[in-house]
Records
---
Amino acid sequence: MLTSVWLLLRTMLPLNMCNKVMWQWWTLLGLLFMCSLGVQCVELTFELPDNAKECLYEHVEKGTKAILEYQVLVVTGGHYDVDAKVVAPNKQILYNEVKKQFDSFEWVADMTGDYAACFSNEFSTFSHKLLYIDFQVGEEKPLEGLPEHHTAMTQMESSSQVIHENLNSVIDYQTHHRLREAQGRKRAEDLNERVLWWSIGVTFAILVIVIGQVFVLRSFFSEKKPSEMMNHGFS
């Protein structure tokens, strides 16, 4: 693709201007590559056993905005729900929900310290659950080098910033799409397994009924032996 763009520019622009445009293209691609390497992910997926409780701790500075998002992905029997709680460093409960499949909670820290996000599956006696968590603290960091400018950003820098924000939005949309796809696939597999066992049971019942009807009809039309008829007559 870049070769085609290079040939098209050579036919339309002078050589020095063409080299300048291509250099800007390569600079933009390099910035995008560095942005992709600099993105920090705070997402994780873990298994929550039955009768278990897990807590995750995140250090948040005072006045910093934090967002907690969670979703139950896979359940080995039972329902897609979990108990969630967010506790401040002073043991104050900021968020408390019971038997939720997914939810999102946003708050601004009133104090500096370690905030706990606890998830409980204690109400379940046999079902394990796979839980997805996205814990974001603070605002999205700008591109490296942009805050150092005291003048207006160039068109290339503005375009890089816009592309950086759009790529973050695309990553977020793709993550949620993969979560919905995994959950839908799990439900489809569970439904397929239930239909399979139900079909096997129905097939077995039909075979038993058919065999029973064959024996019953056979007994109706079977001829009795003469000895049996004589014994029946004397009786």
Note: Residues 1-41 have pLDDT under 50 and may be disordered.
---
Amino acid sequence: MTSASGHRRRVVHPGAWWMWATAMAVAIATTTNPVLLALVLAVVVLTVVARRPYAPWARSLRLYAALGAFVVVSRVVLHVLVGMKTSETIVLPLPQVELPEWARGITLLGPVGLGGLVGAFLEGLRLATMLFCFGAANALANPKRLLAATPPAVRDIGTATVIALSVAPQLVESVQRVRKARVLRGDARRATRVKQVALPVLHDTLDRSISLAASMEARGYGRRAERPFVTRFVIGVLMLGGALLTCVGVYGTMQGSGAEGVVSDVPWWTTAPVLVVGIVASVVGVACAGRSMRRTRYRRDPWGLLEWAVVACGIVTLVAVRAVLEDQPDARNLSVSPLAMPVVPLWLPLALVPALLPAFFTPEPERPRRTSAPERTLDDAAPGRDARALRGATS
């Protein structure tokens, strides 16, 4: 990616965008305040619109918006079908279906209250907002550059993840190439048959896969250095033990911190060291395993002050939002029984201001160059609609 002067324009490291989006998702993971969720959505949308590149893979935010809407609708429908109906204000007087004895405790249908509907909607909106945050990271960070930035030890997992993230954009590009080829041949009709669209797209996908496999094999992709048995054993113990200690530490920390729905007499500071030891062991294991991977990079994505600033904006927002919610517990969740207006402290919108700063201090995406098309004549025109248009203009 180069600018008009021939220099490569500075691009934010994909890992920075993913950390920023993860911090935004964690900030609203324990709240159902609709005002806070709406503000986070607004911040994410503004950042994506301002800094997403001009590429097909960057146009995937609509897909995540549709997925979020599906999550909200599914959560409301599940509440109507099998949810607990405890609200006094009935809005849907549905009949209750009696279930067999083995399904005791499950209520099918029944009168649906306003408070239950609002609660189900807000829970679905919280999950949809978290999905939207990760969709924003997918729209801001190039999946191919994300693969190059993954640690060598988790290269296989990173490859599978990036392939899963880039399937839809690659299919969109293939469909666009097929349609453009049909137009150049003079066939401007909208192709709807499988033979007209699916088969050319499949052929194009197979050709690109074969070319990619040959390119990766020629560059020695996936080769490993020889390691003694003791080294392999120590690395395995570090990675597996670190993962287990991390899981135990996260569970114990959530219990001791008084998370919603979790009660325990174990204080969080007794399990926090276990979490720290697990994270350190995992990092050391990944670093040691990565030394056996031999790979080259044409251009390394730099990680500098710009990336640290983006990550810091996300972390500051996370800490500020959590601090406000801890200071004002009534602002964490909306009261649905009885139904009340959401509590919005003055500091809550201000806590989201740092998350919006990357939309202004990060480099603007480079716009695609527009080359002037040469003047066309009747002899150069493609058959079909273009030729008929030129004949009409010259007659």
Note: The CA atoms of residues 112 and 392 lie 65 Å apart.
---
Amino acid sequence: MKLARSLALLGLSTALAGSQALAADYFVQAITPGAVSGTPLAVITLQSGGESAPSTGVPPVRVVAKQSERIGKWVKVRKEKGSEETSPEIVTTDETAAPEASDMSGSDGNAEVASSGDAGLSEGGALIDSEGTTEGSTALGESATAAADTTADTPAPTPTTTTTAPVTTAPATTPTTTTTAPVPTAPTTNLVAPASTSGVAVPPGAQIWKNFDSLMTSGKVTGGDRIFLLDGYHGQILVRDKKFTSTVTIAPAAGAVAHADSVLVMNSSNVHIQGLKVWPRSSNAGNGALVRTYSSASNIAFTGLDVRGIATAGNYSSWTATDWNNYQRTGFQVDGPNITVARNRVTGIFNGIIMLGKNALLEANIVDGFSGDGMRALGDNSVVRGNKVQNCHQVNGSHTDAFQAWTNGPTGKVGTGTLRNVTIEDNKIFEFVGTRSPIACKLQGISLFAGVYDNFVIRNNVISTTAYHGITIAGGQNSQIVNNTVVHAFGTAGVYPWIRVSANRDGRPSLNVTVANNMTTSLKVNQDATKAIVATNNVVVTNASNEFAGVSKQDFNLRSGSKGVDAGIPALAPKDDIVGAARPKGKAPDAGAYENF
């Protein structure tokens, strides 16, 4: 069903071509239609104990989904271009009607998943109507496999049928007007994640494609189009060699739960994938990344995905070390410029989210239950904002980090390059929440060890861990560490976790680094005027119960008698705190991530 709408750029820095465009809705049948099987997930919000949802700033995941209801509505229908032939890859229902916009059930990474089994369907070159009935018996093989780390940028299998879809005639419409968004420049704190798109119910007369691959190889999809996936299992979602001029959205249809083994984007631009359930069905799926882009991809966004190492990842609290090693998969591994990973939930995973390209935005994600690193960002001009990382597990000899970044020099050697213009703000890092696992890790917070880190801003983060490094920058230059709360997870006073500034591994010193307005268990910063290393207005926490509302409940709001109240220096404080409250409320800004008094 061809529709016209205003082409919102979704914050992807898309370069639009032409002054006017027409857009289309496509609907795709699942390989195996029916209910998606997976354990329900516990409700987790981006808020901590004692917090209310912010009125400004980054909304919690569920609020984002509600706000999106008014965004990106399609308003008219028009006559399609194309032939009037029929195709074994699609079907047109009996009547023609304009679709009605409604919520997509898959738009929220926190949404619970039905635990019923998959419904069966005979597959093949059969016509499928909107009721899901079939005729014909030609079998189609499944191509659903998890994208492994060793996957090369090589040609994908070609579907056996690539016929052109027929057309449903509809009234004409006025072409839409396009808008252009500026490309972000450093500093990149103005990067904005795309809003969720409202789903469309399958209208009478709609064309339903047999599977995702047949639609993508048909040549029908162009910039501004939307692809809606119906209930059930869709195999691997592969987008290859698609350089769209404006954003193409791939999402569940209204009320649908769409499941994929993996998502892979190669040599493509301007794609927004949202609201899918992503985990491997096979127990032998390998240990690669479940959502993957390569350096040939650009302007790609992933929002509202529910990504798990296995369908039953909601039960990770009962896993043994053997289980964790068996499910040692990465949630997201994305490369290429201008990639957004926002408002997703990653559960029961090895590494949570790995961002390799420049101008990356990693925002408002939840990584819950992991055994490697929670997040990484290795590209210049990137933002890591408003995420929650919690519940790490120790299953091998490697150290676990909530966030880690390193550099690669001209020859590719680790630690010999420079990483520039990165903002890490408003994140919550909790080693463990609730009943502590016997194999809980000792988590490191923000770890910057290998290389030079130039123009880093680390602010308004809460870190509750038991390992040494709360925030460590080794080889920092022209950087700030301000208004963070770094506290031992048990409230214990001592020498760690610390905030530390030091030389990097090859001896290059830190230069022009300011550490101010923090509350921390320990401070390891040697002030040095010749190197412009400054530490001021920091509060060392010796009795956490006197300072914070509830350490055991991850509530790091300040008590009225806290040493952190009005302890900050105004010139160095961010204008608002971790939940968007304006600074200062009192005579001076509070130290730490929260502005309370």
Note: The first strand starts at residue 2 and ends at 4.
---
Amino acid sequence: MGGRMGVVRRGSDVTSHVSSSGKSGVAPCLQHFSVIRSIGRGAFGKVCIVQERKTKKYFALKYMNKRRCIEKGVAANVIRELTLLSKISHPFIVNLWYTFQDPDYMYMVSDLLLGGDLRYHLSQQGKFAEDRAKLYLCEICLAVEYLHEMKIVHRDIKPENILLDEQGHAHLTDLNLATQLEDDQLATSYSGTRPYMAPEIYATYLELEDGYDSRVDWWALGVCFYEMLRGRTPFEFSSRTKPEEAYVAFRESSIPYPAHWTTDLIHFINTVLKFDKEKRLVGLDSIKKHAYLERIDFKSVFERKPAPVFIPCKEGLNCDPMYELEERILVSTPIHRRRTNHNNSSGRSSSEPQNAALVEVSKAFIDFSRHNVKIEPNGFCRSN
């Protein structure tokens, strides 16, 4: 969804990774929040800053139109994403706090992040200093390793899906394409964003391999790290590039490196971006031991002790200024009107198949409150 922001605010008036408000016995609903402003929009709905009336904490509220999701065939993806998010909790992932629904919309309330995504910052600055990029790399490595421990493969790691908080720390978001794989199970769908998809995803599509596993996420993170440092991806593709052409490019092309890059840095990227997945550098334990990162104290990184080199601007939104202009002049139905008119709108005429699908989506929807789960030491969320 366009314009997604990045910042978990820390303090008494805003949400942090661990809530202090305690367990809630009341199911969340739209009336429990005050809408502050819109900060993003997409094909199926918008993202707003909201304030929880009871706790006065701020969150991001994403709401999606059920009928549009059904028409576009993405309703199952939304339900799967909510299911996965309801099971996890991590300091470098944008965490889910609540979900609820009404006849027309699905709502998800998450950590509020206003520091901008890395795509926006790359567009503004071209590339990042190495120390800055290395901290982002380490923080997202921790998030990816955690997802893999939970048997979740993200499948869409890219700068747009890495958000900054107001201190400048990185957070991984958007599990819309994520899947959960059991041991020795392979994924087979052609999923991801082209410049960041690993060779084995293309190979599976071309029926050269039976499937792929979590190693595709380490490849994607390697592409992101290279792009942070150079301002371009290591392999250039256009919208016209065919899967077989991309696969050949991975197999036969060499990655270009600036002359001033160190041997350790080049070797690190080369091993993370190995065409042969069996020889690829994957997993946090192996990455920690590489010469390029062996001096990094990952426990300290997990505890957010290293000070980020870059602090996002706190004035205004860290997003494309054209989007901010559009938000000021765009006339649309305010979200708060749905508190009184959603019952009327749900009665409009529609086809029987779509109405049946709407009923199924409503039944499959997961109602969730983070206050009603116990977060175990491994980060797994279990219902109380």
Note: Confidence is low (pLDDT under 50) at residues 1-22, 325-333.
